[in-house]
Amino acid sequence: MSLKKIEHPSVKHCADAVKARYTHGRPEHELVPSRYVLKVGTIEVTVVSDGVLSLPGAMLGHNADPAARAAWLENRFLPPDVLEWALNVVVVRSGGQTILVDAGIGAEFPDLKRAGRLVQRLDDAGIDLSSVTDVVLTHLHMDHIGGLLIDGVKEVLRPDLRIHVAAAEIKFWEEPDFSHVSMPPGFPDALRESAKRFLKLYRSQLRPFENEHEVAPGVRVQRTGGHTPGHSVVRLASGGDRLMFAGDAVFQVGFDHPDWYNGFEHDPEEAARVRVRLLRELAANRESLLATHLSFPSVCHVAVEGDRFVWVPGPWEY
Predict the structure, then answer these.
(1) 251 exposed, middle or buried (CB, 10 Å; 0-12, 13-18, 19+)?
(2) Which of 92, 121, 193, 257 is most deeply packed, by most CB within 10 A?
């Protein structure tokens, strides 16, 4: 497979292409709330949609044969040029703590007009930002920290808020390496700028950890690396129930083709190894899976059929 860099269309082009496909527009008011609640033992988990990102389809696997990538998209009734990536955030309640896991994109990329809905949707779900005791960040890409950079948000958050992020992630963004990514124009600069502003704004509230940290009873964050050097997953355990929020370690195409490189991966070879390891582990222990960019609400299991992984939707709880 070739590692040749792909010339991606701009994000604005992708957003306009999506808009053109919906000639009658979309409802101004949501028909259903974009949140989903489930229990992991006694731990309450709320999945909140921050919206969708309209990005080039080639970002699913920039090292893949273009014909194979096009066939995969067609077989899943997806357009070949633009993929609408889900953007999921999680709120966890355990041991009297309210934990926000990632924070969406906020207003960091204005061309992505269908994302950045987190603050409003938290309010719709009855979750007050001032009640959040902890934030866990899987990594510092702007679609995971942007909601914390919206004007006025920091003033609403508790002054004693704890923000948990891997020490390796903080170090990486002091001098980030973009030599192995394959992103649309404008993204590297936007990612650098948002991470820089975030670290400056929240430096005093950061609680760095090395490899693993227990945030609350039954809530652990573990560094995996790969996607970024400090990329981490959040693992919940209560009673006999288990769930992993995998951040950007697992993408939609990763079940069928875990060796395809996502355009946002800073170390794509290591990211692929992490992806395979986590998927094998999830299949073996039957742990539930959530991930940032799997279709909302993304709750699923992982099975194995031959030499491929299989996405198994979780039963809808209502």
Answers:
(1) buried
(2) 92
Q: Residue 181 has which token pair?
A: 């990514």
Q: How far apart are CA 102 and CA 115, in angstroms?
A: 14
Range with the poorest average pLDDT among 1-10, 51-60, 215-224? 1-10
Rounded to two decimals, the pTM is 0.91
What phi, psi does 312 have (nearest 5°)? -115, 110
Written as six digits, the tokens of 159 are 């002054």
